[in-house]
Amino acid sequence: MRAATQVFEGGFADSVLGSQEIFRALMDAMANPGRIVSVGDLAQAPSPLTPVAASIAATLFDHDATVWCDKPIKASEAALGWLKFHTGLELTNDPAGADFALVTDIDNMPSFDAFAKGTSEYPDRSTTIILQVAGFEAQTSLTLEGPGIKGTQAFSPSQLPRMFTEQWAANRGAFPRGIDLIFAGNGLLAALPRTTRILNKEA
Amino acid sequence: MYVAVKGGEAAIRNAHKLLADRRRGDRSVPAIGLDQIVEQLALAVDRVMAEGSLYDAELAALAVKQARGDMIEAIFLVRAYRTTLPRFGYTKPVETSQMMIERRISATFKDLPGGQLLGPTFDYTHRLLDPELAEDMPVEMPDKRVEAHEHTPRVTDILGHDGMIEADGDMPDGSEIGDLTREPLTFPLERDLRLQALARGDEGFLLGLAYSTQRGYARSHPFAGEIRIGEVEVELEVAELDFPLTLGRIRLTECQMVNQFKGSSKQPPQFTRGYGLVFGQSERKSMSMALCDRALRARELGEDITAAAQDEEFVISHSDNVQSTGFVEHLKLPHYVDFQAELDLVRRMRGEHENQKSQIKEAAE
Amino acid sequence: MTELATYNFAYLDEQTKRMIRRAILKAIAIPGYQVPFASREMPMPYGWGTGGVQVTAAIIGPNDTLKVIDQGADDTTNAVSIRAFFQKVANVPVTTKTTEATIIQTRHRIPETALQAGQTLVYQVPIPEPLRFLEPRETETRKMHALEEYGLMHVKLYEDIARHGHIATTYAYPVKVEGRYVMDPSPTPKFDNPKMHNSPALQLFGAGREKRIYAIPPYTQVVSLDFEDHPFEVQTFSQPCALCAAKGSYLDEVILDDKGGSMFVCSDTDFCEERQAAGHRGHLSPAQAEAAE
Ligand SMILES: [Zn+2]
Predict the structure, then answer these.
(1) Which site from A97, B1, B309, C20 is most exposed, i.e. has the minimal number of CB atoms within 10 Å?
(2) Number of other residues whose CB lies within 10 A of the CB of residue B350
(3) Cα A143 from chain centroid?
């Protein structure tokens, strides 16, 4: 009973304007790598999905989008049910075939290499990975440069995938092929497109 | 003194008012009703449904009326409406062998199961203008067939029994039938998307290409195996039901061309197919489509690609009349910024040319 | 607007918007690369801005202020028509002032007034493929982009120089984005090319009929192709604007009579009007003429 309510409720209060707001935040974030964009009027999904991650899902996913979800999401019937009901997404177990990946447990996620990088003729056929993070106030800070950034930009997400700078350098090296990252924080979001370079030696 | 031209809004408003006036024409002449268009200009309505990719006679009639009889404009109106409609699902493939036949002819067999049925055709009418039609003269009711509806197998099925013609063909393993209205086309195409594009392609464009194949530009030795016109049921599979739901009936024209045979050391010779299927009654379109389909199968059949009709990118990229008319007609839009840039360059080059000439002259003097 | 009640906010259905939005994010992530998208039939003809309209419709929201220009002007008929469309279907505020707009949809020009961070410029693109007139086949041009094989483009530009003494491309002048993709800037005069470089604004390009979306993020390197011995240069005008006396703005030639009489005025009407409002007078401006009377 409760699970069903969890599944059916929690969409955007206004699906048209709600997803428009989230999309603009995403566009702003992707166009300005490392910029922290705040968002309101969020969707509410069952754990482990946070409101921002759920809102991004509701904005970008539908039955034309193939999505790979990590274990904690797959383990939650309510979270999966919510995603299916509110987005109609196409689930896949193959990260290399996913348009999007939704990651709640960053420490245990597959390496970037496991996801789709697109082809040299169609580099857009790649995975956009949505990382659920606590926030953007970590002690260590990345220094970013590249398209969308005037000079440099500091970026301090609370969690990063393992061996992030190495993985990211390899991703950057494959340009124009590669994955793109969206960070879903608490009422905030940010993005790193494949064009962004990290200047720090380590992070 | 110069005052820049203003008032685009007023100009547009006035132009649209004038358009509405011309559309209505002489007010003492009764306005044409949609039912009149549906009933009496049915083939115009059919073309709009076919190339508009939307089976709705009344909307097509409205579009014809709104477009003042301009077919491509009417097709455009229907397309722009169609694209806003939500998609509930995909119907089952229609079963044309179960068609309620109104017309069926074969050029390959004199007689065959189901027989030849001329139906409502312009063929064998003498194209003499009929002054009687200028008046509302009473029209006789047609004679109705008395015998029971006979099963009418498709000619290609008959030929297929003993392997004389290739099978319908399969899609590559694991591929789903595409939808060109939902996915951007990426060349090369599979036959599903190609046929979709041809089905909504411009009748005139396909007709010209089809004609070119008959004149030696990708000759395919076609025989009109069969053309059939009639109604088929449209069925949708619904998850909750264990039988398909019948949504209604649509009238279709199907053309199966039987073409040049192929064979190899491994395979005995077989005729090949070209396929045309169009909403409503349009033999010209379905035959043109079938000839183009066959020509476009050149790659698949290992034939040399030498002619326009075989060139998939060329044919499919230019067959859509809504796209074509939009881009051709966009030349009406102002281009004066770009023209200014060209004007300046040409003036500059002419100036340089003059200079050179006078320098040469000076040097010579 | 009851008759429009059946259409969604900003006309497009939500599924179409999602599809376009996904393409826009990819386009921003791969600057200059043309992302294929399933362009829809729009209620205006292909070639008349359907790509730009779809991009604008996918991004616009109630907090936006929209400006639409064609040839630099807000009052050209197609600009008026597209602006009216968005007023009707999205009920958003519109403006003619470049500085007030959050989204500017354009055909053939980039505004003279420098764009600001947070603004988005949406270009209507007829032929997105810069290599199209050298190689008509998509299958081939796609390979050329994949292999970064742009020699053909340089050959073409160089042939111009050999034949005319100049690079004869005056508009839709190809650029290289972030050192990787050669991109068509849409048929803007090459005068506008330098404005694309390192712009604080986001630039989105929509080609409806050709079903492509591409983008230049803010602060991105955009270099016009050229040669060491024939560097890229923009057109200069020998006279200032006849209405506002601006030097260095792009001018339209207005024919005054059939005896060769003409005048040059800013193609960017907002820029020209703002300057006139600030008291700048050209030699043929109405106020100047009054003063002379
Ligand atoms: Zn001026």
Answers:
(1) B1
(2) 10
(3) 20
Q: Which residues in B lie closer than 8 A to residue C165 (C-beta atoms)?
A: 349, 352
Please report whether residue B133 resides in a domain.
Answer: no
pTM of the model: 0.90
Alpha carbon distance B42, C267 (integer Å): 49
Task: Look at residue A185 and tell me if it is in a domain.
Answer: yes
Residues in B closer than 8 angstroms to C172, CB to CB, are: 338
Indicate if B164 and B280 belong to the same structural domain: yes
Q: How far is the CA of C247 from the centre of ligand 1 (A)?
A: 8
Nearest to C29 among A17, A122, A193 (CB): A193
Structure tokens at C50: 């359907």
Chain C touched by B334 (CB under 8 Å) = yes
The DSSP line for C259-271 is TS-EEEEES-HHH
One-character DSSP codes across B263-306: --SSS--EEEEEEEEEESS-HHHHHHHHHHHHHHTHHHHT----
Mutation for testing the C interface, residue in B9, B325, B329, B333 having most C CBs under 10 Å:
B333
The answer to whether position A33 is within a domain reads: yes
Number of domains in chain A: 1
Pairing of strands B100-105, A180-184: unpaired
Distance from C-alpha of C68 to C-alpha of C82, rounded to nearest angstrom: 7
**Does residue B102 share a domain with residue B49?**
no
Interface test with C, best of A195, A196, A197 (most C CBs within 10 A): A195
Residue of chain C whose Cα is closest to the Cα of B342: C170
Rounded distance, CA A74 to CA B178, Å? 29
Task: Report the run of H or E that residue B17 belongs to, with start and end.
Answer: helix B8-24
Please list the pLDDT of chain B residue by residue as tens digits (365 residues): 444 446 678 888 999 999 999 999 999 999 999 999 999 999 999 999 999 999 999 999 999 999 999 999 999 999 999 988 877 888 999 999 999 999 999 999 888 888 899 999 999 888 999 998 999 889 999 988 766 677 889 999 988 888 889 988 777 788 888 999 988 899 999 999 999 999 999 999 999 999 999 999 998 889 999 999 999 999 998 878 889 999 999 999 999 999 987 777 777 888 999 999 999 999 999 999 999 999 999 998 889 999 999 999 999 999 999 999 999 999 999 898 989 888 888 888 898 888 888 888 887 77
Cα separation, B224 vs B107, in Å, equals: 5
Using CB atoms, which chains have 3+ pairs under 8 A with A?
A: C
Two tokens at C101? 């707009």
* Domain at A140, CATH number: 3.40.50.11310
- Kindly provide the b/e burial profile for residues C268-277, where b requires at least 16 CB atoms within 10 angstroms of the residue's own CB: bbbbbbbbbe
Q: Which one, of B133, B108, B283, lies nearest residue B207 by Cα?
A: B283
Place of tokens 């857009």: A124
Same domain? B160 vs B289: yes
- Domain that residue B257 falls in: 96-119+149-169+179-325
Bridge partners (DSSP) listed for residue B218: none
Tell me if A89 is assigned to some domain. yes
Which domain does A58 fall in, by range?
A: 2-198
Q: Is residue A203 part of a domain?
A: no
- Enumerate residues 6+ apart whose C-beta is below 8 A from C185: C123, C172, C173, C174, C175, C192, C193, C196
Q: Which residues, in sequence order, are CB contacts of C170 under 8 Å at separation 6+?
A: B338, B341, B342, B344, B345, C189, C190, C235
User: Is residue B127, in this structure, part of any structural domain at all?
Assistant: no
Q: Which amino acid is at C26?
A: K
Residue C42's contacts (CB-CB under 8 Å, 6 or more residues apart) are: B80, B83, C11, C50, C53, C54, C208
B89 touches chain C (CB under 8 A): no
- Is C272 an active-site residue? yes
Write down the ipTM of this complex: 0.96
Structural contact between residues B238 and B112, judged by C-beta atoms closer than 8 angstroms: no
The verdict on whether C49 is a catalytic residue reads no
